[in-house]
Write a structure and sequence with these properties.
two-stranded parallel sheet; 339 residues; 11 helices; mainly alpha
Length: 339
C-alpha cells in the first residue's frame, strides 16, 4: 500500500510507499471531533489545496522549506539508520510512508493544518505538545527511532515546510481534507481471517506474502514498506489502531488505483484487512512500554487496545470491535468518543 510522490499541487500516480501515523475522522458517517485532542472547527467546506512548490521563495527561508520537504520525502536517506546527516529513525521507514505525497494528499494523513493547530493537548501523553514534539513522537514510535533535537537544522527545516504548506489555514482551525475520511463502523468484530483474503487479493502484490514489503537495492529505504515484523511500526502507533488504519487503507490503498473519491475497498474489507495486518496473534512487531500512555484512561480512543479503560468493554472489543456499543456507552456517560 504505497504512497505517491509529486509537487505540492499535483496528483500524479507514481508508486512510492505507504502505510502507517494522527488526525481524526468520522463516526457513523459524520465528523465527531474530540476537543480534548486539539481538534478545531473546520474553516472552509471546500477541499483545501496546498500551495505549489514552485511558489517556494528563492531565499534563505525558501531553502529551508525545500530542505524540510526533502527530509520528509527522503527521511531514511538523511535521518534513518544509515542516514547521511544523522541516525534517528530505526527501521528504514520514513514520513511519507504515512503522510502521503510529502504530506499533501487529501485524506492521506497530510500536514495541511498541522502547523496551525499546534501546540495542542495530546491525550496519549496527557499534556501539551509542540509540533516538534509531535514529529519526534512519530520518529520514536512508527519509525522505531529516537527523538531529534528540537533546535536542530533538520527539525527546523521540517517545521518550516509544514508552516509553508499551511499557508492560508487560520490559526487553530482545520481545513477540509486534513483528516481521515469517514468509514462505517461494523455491527460485528472485524475479522482477521476475512482480512487475509482481502490482503492476498489487493495488498500482497506490493507488500509480499510475508508482509515485509520490498526494500530498495541500496538497502536504505523501502519501495513498499513492511506492515508487520521487527522493522514495521510499533503498537501505539496510529496505524496499529483498527479504525484509523481502516480509514487510511480504504481511501488510499491500493495506491496505484485507489483515491479518496474512488476507493477500491468497501468499509467491511478495509476494517477486516486492517484487523489482519494488526493482528497480534498472527504477526509480531516491536513492543514498546505502553503502561504510561493515556494517563487519563477515559481519553483512550475507541480502538486503542491496551487496557485499562474507564468503560466496561474488554481489550479484545477495543481492538476488533464491534465499536458502536463502546461509542454509545461513552456518549451516554459523557466520555470522549473519538478514534
Amino acid at each position: 500500500m504505497p504512497g505517491r510522490r509529486n509537487s505540492a499541487s499535483m496528483r500524479s500516480k507514481h508508486l512510492i510507499v505507504g502505510v502507517a501515523c494522527i488526525l481524526f475522522a468520522a463516526v457513523y458517517g459524520c465528523s465527531q471531533q474530540t476537543p480534548h485532542r486539539g481538534d478545531a472547527v473546520i474553516a472552509d467546506t471546500a477541499l483545501f489545496v496546498p500551495p505549489d512548490t514552485a511558489t517556494i521563495p528563492h531565499n534563505a527561508t525558501g531553502d529551508m522549506i525545500r530542505y524540510g520537504r526533502d527530509l520528509l520525502v527522503n527521511f531514511p536517506y538523511y535521518l534513518g539508520p544509515k542516514g547521511s546527516v544523522g541516525s534517528f529513525g530505526g527501521n528504514g521507514l520514513g514520513c511519507q510512508n504515512c503522510h502521503l505525497e510529502a504530506g499533501t494528499r487529501p485524506f492521506g494523513l497530510n500536514y495541511f493544518s498541522a502547523h496551525a493547530r499546534y501546540p495542542q493537548y495530546r491525550a496519549r501523553e496527557g499534556k501539551i505538545l509542540t509540533l516538534g514534539d509531535r514529529i519526534n513522537n512519530c520518529i520514536e514510535r512508527p519509525l522505531n527511532g529516537k527523538p531529534m533535537p528540537l533546535d536542530s537544522k533538520e527539525m527546523v527545516a521540517m517545521l518550516a515546510y509544514m508552516q509553508w504548506l499551511s499557508t492560508g489555514v487560520p490559526v487553530g482551525k482545520r481545513v477540509h481534507g486534513d483528516n481521515l475520511k469517514a468509514i462505517a463502523l461494523l455491527d460485528r468484530p472485524a475479522d482477521p481471517g476475512k482480512g487475509r483474503i482481502v490482503y492476498e487479493r489487493h495488498c500482497q502484490r506490493c507488500h509480499g506474502d510475508d508482509g515485509q514489503g520490498v526494500i530498495k537495492e541500496d538497502g536504505i529505504a523501502y519501495v513498499y514498506p513492511p506492515l508487520w515484523g521487527p522493522l514495521s511500526y510499533q503498537p501505539g502507533s496510529s496505524m496499529h489502531r483498527l479504525i484509523k488504519s481502516a480509514q487510511f487503507i480504504k481511501y488510499n490503498m491500493p495506491n496505484d488505483i485507489a483515491s479518496w473519491d474512488k476507493p477500491v475497498l468497501t468499509d467491511e474489507e478495509a476494517m477486516d484487512v486492517a484487523a489482519y495486518v494488526n493482528d497480534d496473534k498472527m504477526h509480531t512487531r516491536p513492543q514498546p512500554d505502553l503502561t504510561n500512555e493515556y494517563p487519563v484512561h477515559k481519553e483512550k480512543p475507541l480502538d486503542y487496545y491496551w487496557p485499562p479503560y474507564d468503560d466496561p468493554f474488554s481489550a479484545e472489543q477495543h481492538k476488533y470491535g464491534p465499536f458502536k456499543p463502546i461509542f454509545e456507552w461513552r456518549k451516554k456517560n459523557g466520555h470522549p468518543t473519538g478514534y
